[in-house]
């Protein structure tokens, strides 16, 4: 696990450069000392990979287009691929340190992609996913290495797909909720608001209006 205390971008982009990341083994682990970053924060950035994080000490505030959330010591979360975000160390006496696991989803199931992502529309049992180990052991390994339950990962991925469809397509909210495996439109509206702090319709208006302004 490498120690990091700064961020590098590709020229003319907010895409983060990931030193040591290789297509042969698309995974890197790092220990980020946020207090040593400029202004104790990581500026807005994105990457083509999934980011799993754990707050080892201190407290971290995460910002995404959907809002912000604070993660105290001992907690963690997931940022999906291609989601722009920034992080900020909260004022305190304790040093702020994050453990980061950044990987391509192909790592979960080979070059053809993750079984979870390929089947996000329908419920996914872990038994067929774990072809050579028990279902219980598969859950344990998933949690140990990714610090998130398979069901939480699935929900986050479904939400990412729903955001993409809302921003880029014209399907109704009901059609999107079913297409992403999120059930009824009322349930979809509830879990969407919990994650994004706005309704699906508000999210669509915000991002589609933003795209129109950018085209003028």
Short description:
The chain is of the alpha+beta class and 216 residues long. Helix content is 36%, strand content 24%. It contains 8 helices and 9 strands.
Report on this structure.
This protein has helices at 106-109, 115-118, 126-129, 135-146, 150-168, 173-179, 185-196, 200-215; strands at 2-4, 27-33, 41-45, 50-57, 59-64, 67-72, 76-79, 85-89, 97-103. With 216 residues, it is α+β, with helices and mostly antiparallel strands. The chain folds into two domains: 1-104, Sandwich (Jelly Rolls); 110-216, Arc Repressor Mutant, subunit A (Orthogonal Bundle), CATH 1.10.10.60. A five-stranded mixed beta sheet has the order 1-2-9-4-7, with no helix packed on it. A four-stranded antiparallel beta sheet has the order 3-8-5-6, with no helix packed on it. Helix 5 (150-168) crosses helix 8 (200-215). The longest helix has 19 residues, at 150-168. It is globular, with a radius of gyration of 18 Å.
Biggest sheet: strands, sense, closure? 5 strands, mixed
CATH topology of the largest domain: Arc Repressor Mutant, subunit A
The CATH architecture name of the largest domain reads Orthogonal Bundle
Order of helices and strands: EEEEEEEEEHHHHHHHH
**Strand count:** 9
Helix-and-strand structural type: alpha+beta
| Span of the ends, CA to CA | 46 Å
Low-confidence regions? 109-113, 124-133
Give the radius of gyration.
18 Å
CATH homology superfamily of the largest domain:
Homeodomain-like
Helix content: 25-40%
Question: What is the CATH class designation of the largest domain?
Answer: Mainly Alpha
Estimated share of beta-strand residues: 15-25%
In which order are the strands of the major sheet placed? 1-2-9-4-7
- The figure for the number of domains is 2
Determine the mean pLDDT. 80
Count the DSSP helices.
8
* Overall form: globular
